Structure formats: C-alpha cells, structure tokens
Amino acid sequence: MTAYRFDKTAGTVFAHVSLKDARSFGNTFDTFDNVGDLQNNKNISLTDLVNIYNMHKAPDAPNVAKFADKTAAARRVFAALEAKFTLTAQELVDVVESKAPVAEAPPVVVPEAPTPRASVFNKGTTETVVVKKETLKQAVQKVLDKKQTGRKKGSGKFAGKQLFPLVAENPRRAGSFGYHSMSLILAVPGLYYSTYIEKGGRPQDLQWDIDRKFVEVK
Fold first, then answer.
1. Residue 162 reports pLDDT greater than 80
2. Residue 212 and which of 31, 123, 142, 198 are 20 to 30 A apart at CA?
3. Do 100 and 139 touch, CB atoms closer than 8 A?
C-alpha cells in the first residue's frame, strides 16, 4: 500500500512505498496510509485538505473551494492521491522487468505467495503480481516520484539555475500555490531551482513570475 508524507510548509504531499519509508524523513512531517489516519490527524486542517486535493486531483476535475466536513474531505483527498499514485499495470510491468536495481530479475508469482513477499495490485484488475519487497523498493519509489512531478525533480530548462526576485513583496494572492512558490524565492534570493521544486515550488508558477518580470533566472 502506498503511504504519504504531508509537508505542511510546502503545502504538498509526497508518495512513498511504505510508512516506514515516509517516516524516515523525520518527525516534522505528517504521514498516513489510509483515510482514517488522514481524517483524524489534527495537524492537517480542512484548509490543508482543500489545497492538497486541488494540487493532486485529476487534471480534468474542477477545483474545490471547500468541503462540507473533514470526513468528506479526507475521503476525496485520499481517493485523489490513490488515483494519482497507484501504479498502472504497465508501470508495474516496467518495474518488474527492467527497473529493479539488482543483477537478477525479481520473481513473479501468482497470488498466495509466502509471507516474506509483498503484493502489489495492478490498478483496475484483481490480478496480483508478487515481488520481493527489498528488491523493488527503490524501483517503485522512482515511479512514484515520477508521478509526483511528471519528470525527475529539478530537471527541465531551469535545471541548475538560480532564482532571483525582482520585486520586494509577494505580488501573488495570499494562500495560493503561486504565493507559496514566490515566497520561496523571496525568502532565499539565489535559490537553486532543484531546491525550489523540493520545497513545493511549481514550474508553472515560476514561468508565470518570469513572464511578468517578478523573477529572473541566472
């Protein structure tokens, strides 16, 4: 089961192969792997859930302004995260066949495998592919990371560049994703693009700020 790590400062969620892996980043983050834990986490507010949903929902789904209550919010948010980060059948095949960082190919067996192995379910089917947990842990995490950003973090035309603000105050609307992205640059002039992305900055926000001469890239 995919686990999630909520970075309140960045205002976003990162997917991990297990709760143990998510918690390895330290106790300053909130982690969860089911709706109940998300709903009952007092550190994650209803406003946080609205922001998380709007960031990770399907591209064609409309933004939400608010949820009726935290129960409904947690269900919608967790469903959106699962839809985004659950491996498709083809992604799983890619991991099993060629992405595992080991010399020999990992075993693939039918359901009811022995306890030391971990089941990974193909999205949209009841078929189960079973692989050694440690063999594929890093490979699956790479796929989740790719689904998080669409490409390797910090890559693209701004890779290796530094970001400098051209304004003294944040011109974006307070509470928006753009406001958060711009705040990162204002707080650390010369911020490297890779760090900007790691802290929750978005490429589209950066391009918007560059086009309006709020930010320059060197």
1. yes
2. 198
3. yes
Q: Where among 85, 112, 129 does a domain terminate?
A: 85
Residue ranges making up the domain that contains 210: 162-217
**Ramachandran quadrant class, 150 (left: phi over 0; alpha: psi -120 to 50; beta: rest):** left
CA dihedral (143, 22, 174, 48) positive or negative = positive
Q: Are residues 103 and 134 in the same domain?
A: yes
Q: How far apart are CA 7 and CA 13, in angstroms?
A: 6
The structure tokens 């379910």 sit at 121
Domain shared by 130 and 114, yes or no = yes
User: What pLDDT shows up at residue 115?
Assistant: 39
The pair of three-digit structure tokens given for residue 18, joined into one six-digit string: 């297990």
Q: Which tokens in the block code for residue 202?
A: 């978005």
Cα–Cα distance measured from residue 153 to residue 64, given in angstroms and rounded to the nearest whole number: 27
Number of domains in the chain: 3
- Same domain for 127 and 177, yes or no, is no
User: CA 45 → CA 42, 169, 214, distances in Å?
Assistant: 7, 27, 31
Q: Which of 85, 108, 132 is the last residue of a domain?
A: 85
First to last CA, the chain: 41
Tell me, what DSSP letter sits at residue 24? Answer: T
Q: How many residues are listed for the chain in this entry? A: 218
Residue 166 in this model has a pLDDT that exceeds 60: yes
